[in-house]
Amino acid sequence: NGQQQAILVYFFGY
Amino acid sequence: MFEARLNTSQVLKKVLDAIKDLLNEATFDCSDSGIQLQAMDNSHVSLVSLSLRSDGFDKYRCDRNLSMGMNLANMAKIMKCANNDDTLTMKAQDNADTVTFMFESQNQEKVSDYEMKLMNLDQEHLGIPETDYACVVRMPAMEFARICRDLSQFGESVVISCTKEGVKFSASGDAGSANIKLAQTSTVDKEDESVVIEMQEPVTLTFACRYLNSFTKATPLCNQVQLSMSADVPLVVEYRIPDLGHIRYYLAPKIED
Questions:
Q1: Which among B45, B124, B233 has the least Cβ separation from residue A5?
Q2: How far is B122 from chain A (nearest CA, A)?
Q3: I need a labelling partner for B52 at 20 to 30 A (CA). Which of B4, B11, B196, B255 fits?
Q4: Dihedral of the CA atoms B198, B222, B161, B208 (nearest 10)?
Q5: What CA–CA distance (Å, rounded) separates B247 from B52?
Q6: CA B195, CA B188: separation in Å to the nearest integer?
């Protein structure tokens, strides 16, 4: 899950 | 003053069914242009983005921007009290701490109203970047739901591989493996049943079945679903709500170590 969260954070830039 | 009216409650029931698996609570941002909702799921792996345009409502009025934080389980309790063909009106005063749902039967002989307390939710407004996707697949929403349901029996993840020829969904686990290939349809006469692929370059990505299955709760909203994919960015699963707006789910891919 950590990696998926990181991808979302990067994509949405928050 | 905020007031939004739909001639059938069914649409909002379906919208709520499409998000309440993923979200316990959410803020409905109301403005002159319509209602927007954007929220991360409870485990922060996917994002739900809902847009309902003001011109899709049978009556819409929003004098001042309003953010209504709602507990979706409570909203579901209220929506359950509406018949599908009841007229639905959502109403709130400016700066109100409650929202009212009013249901009117077709013959106007039964009128019910339910008041729900609003919540103050911390929310971040995320910028959703404009992205050109390597592959965009449009396919029947029922077919996608079926594939997600079938494959989730075999593993926790689904691998989606998209090429010019078609799209392949695969899963594997202790019980064995499963592969489902869909070719691009050759005829265009039945648009709802077509599989259409727009590909810049082939992609293969892995996603958690659990979330894909939650997204397919939106299936009753529309006949077709659109999947947009590029390497290392979230998949977008989009359901268009006819004449009203859309719901998009973003899900980060699983990356192999």
A1: B45
A2: 14
A3: B196
A4: 140
A5: 9
A6: 9
Report the share of chain B in percent with pLDDT over 90. 86
Least confident stretch, B99-113, B116-130, B225-239: B116-130
Which positions ≥6 away from B186 have C-beta within 8 Å? none
Percent of chain A whose predicted confidence (pLDDT) is above 90: 0
Which residues are within 8 A (CB) of B189 and not within 5 positions of it... i.e. 6 or more apart? none
pLDDT higher for B165 or B100? B100
Find, among B72, B39, B50, B55, the residue nearest to B239 by Cα: B50
Q: Which residue of B43, B208, B253 is in closest CB contact with A7?
A: B253
**B127 contacts A5? CB cut-off 8 A:** no
Report the C-alpha gap between B11 and B242 in whole angstroms: 10
Whole-number CA gyration radius for chain A: 6
| Angle in degrees, CA B184, B185, B189, rounded to 5 | 150
Structure tokens at B150: 């079938």
- B158-197 pLDDT, tens per residue? 999 999 889 999 999 999 999 999 999 887 678 888 999 9
Specify the DSSP element, H or E, that contains B13: helix B10-19
Mean pLDDT of B207-225: 97
A2 near B117, Cβ under 8 Å? no
Q: Do B227 and B218 form a contact (C-beta atoms < 8 A)?
A: no
Q: How buried is B24 (Cβ within 10 angstroms: 0-12 exposed, 13-18 middle, 19+ buried)?
A: exposed
C-alpha closest to that of B200 among B129, B108, B133, B115:
B133
